[in-house]
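User: Let's play a game. I give you a shape written as C-alpha cells, and you guess the letters that built it. Ready? Here's round one.
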C-alpha cells in the first residue's frame, strides 16, 4: 500500500483547492474533515476524481480517530481549524479544543508514523496582531488580540516543541489573508462582493480603515506544494503578496468591477473590540521565496475579478459553510 498525503480540513476553502492540485500532481490523497449528518464532502462533493481519494470523516478533537486517520501517511498538511474571529469571542473554548487540541492530536499521532517526510502546520498572520514593523517578517513579535489568534500562537508553539522534543519533521507555513472561489461569506471579500448583488442599498461592514495583505488561493496552494521536500524543519515561513489594501479600497475596487454603486454602512456588531482590532497586516515572504522560488502569480485586481465571477455563477449559499475552514 502506497503512503499517502493526509490533508486535514481538506473539504474546506483552501483545503479543497490543495486536494485538487495535489491530486493533479499524482499525490495519493487522504482527507480528514468534520463528520456531518448529511455525509457531505463539502467543496469536494462534486470533484470528478473524488473516488480516488480516501475520506476520513470525524472529529479532529478525537485522538483515536486522528491516530487511525493518520496511519500510512507520508506527508501531513494540517489545515483543520476554527477561524472565524467574531465567533471566537463568543465561544473561545471551542477554539481551544479544535485549534490547540486538534493540532496536538495530529502531532501526537505523527510520533507513531514511520517514513514520515513532512508535517506542514498552517499558522496565520493574525498571530502578529497589529503590525509594529513593516513588512512583517517571521521574527515580528506575537500578540494575541483575539481568542482565535491566541489558539493559533499556542498551536504553533506546541508544534515547534514537538519538533525540538521528538525530532518530528515539522514546518510552519504562515499565510496572510486568503481569498478566492469557495471562501465562506464569513470572510471580508466574499462578504463585500455578495452584498453588491443583494437588494440592500448599503454595503454593511465594520472597520473600513484596516489594511490586509491578500493572497489568491491558487498562489497559497502553490506555496504548500513547494514547501514539501525542502526539509526546513522547525522553521516558520510567511506566505504573503507583499501588498496591503484597506477594506474601503477593496469596496471601491469591487464596485468598479461590478459597475454597481452602493453606500457604505458601518455596523456595530461587525467591529472588533478596540483592543482586539488588528489595524494593519503586511507580510514579508523573502525567506520563503529564497527557499522555494515561489511568487504570487495572481495580482489583486485579477483575483478579485475571478472571485466575483465565481460568486455570480455559484448557486451555493456560502453562509451554509460550517466546516473547519480552510
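Assistant: Ready! My guess for every position:
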Amino acid at each position: 500500500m502506497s503512503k499517502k498525503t493526509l490533508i486535514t480540513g481538506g473539504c474546506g476553502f483552501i483545503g479543497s483547492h490543495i486536494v485538487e492540485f495535489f491530486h493533479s500532481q499524482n499525490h495519493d490523497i487522504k482527507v480528514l474533515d468534520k463528520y456531518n449528518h448529511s455525509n457531505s464532502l463539502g467543496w469536494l462533493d462534486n470533484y470528478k476524481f473524488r473516488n480516488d481519494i480516501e475520506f476520513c470523516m470525524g472529529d479532529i478533537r478525537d485522538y483515536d480517530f486522528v491516530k487511525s486517520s493518520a496511519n500510512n501517511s507520508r506527508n501531513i498538511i494540517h489545515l483543520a481549524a476554527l477561524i472565524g474571529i467574531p465567533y471566537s469571542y463568543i465561544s473561545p473554548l471551542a477554539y481551544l479544543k479544535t485549534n490547540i487540541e486538534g493540532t496536538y492530536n495530529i502531532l501526537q499521532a505523527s510520533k507513531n508514523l514511520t517514513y514520515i517526510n513532512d508535517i506542514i502546520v498552517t499558522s496565520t498572520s493574525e498571530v502578529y496582531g497589529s503590525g509594529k514593523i513593516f513588512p512583517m517578517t517571521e521574527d515580528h513579535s506575537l500578540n494575541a488580540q483575539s481568542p482565535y489568534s491566541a489558539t493559533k500562537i499556542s498551536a504553533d508553539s506546541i508544534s515547534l516543541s514537538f519538533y525540538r522534543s521528538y525530532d518530528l519533521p515539522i514546518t510552519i507555513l504562515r499565510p496572510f489573508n486568503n481569498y478566492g472561489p469557495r471562501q465562506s461569506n464569513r470572510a471580508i471579500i466574499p462578504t463585500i462582493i455578495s452584498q453588491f448583488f443583494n437588494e440592500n442599498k448599503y454595503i454593511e461592514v465594520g472597520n473600513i480603515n484596516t489594511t490586509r495583505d491578500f493572497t489568491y488561493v491558487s498562489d497559497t496552494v502553490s506555496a504548500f506544494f513547494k514547501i514539501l521536500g525542502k526539509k526546513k524543519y522547525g522553521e516558520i515561513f510567511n506566505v504573503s503578496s507583499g501588498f496591503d489594501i484597506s477594506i474601503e479600497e477593496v469596496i471601491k475596487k469591487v464596485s468598479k468591477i461590478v459597475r454597481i454603486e452602493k453606500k457604505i454602512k458601518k455596523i456595530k456588531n461587525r467591529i472588533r473590540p478596540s483592543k482586539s482590532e488588528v489595524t494593519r497586516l503586511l507580510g514579508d515572504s523573502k525567506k520563503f521565496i529564497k527557499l522555494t522560488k515561489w511568487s504570487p502569480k495572481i495580482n489583486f485586481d485579477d483575483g478579485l475579478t475571478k472571485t466575483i465571477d465565481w460568486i455570480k455563477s455559484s448557486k451555493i449559499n456560502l453562509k451554509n459553510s460550517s466546516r473547519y475552514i480552510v
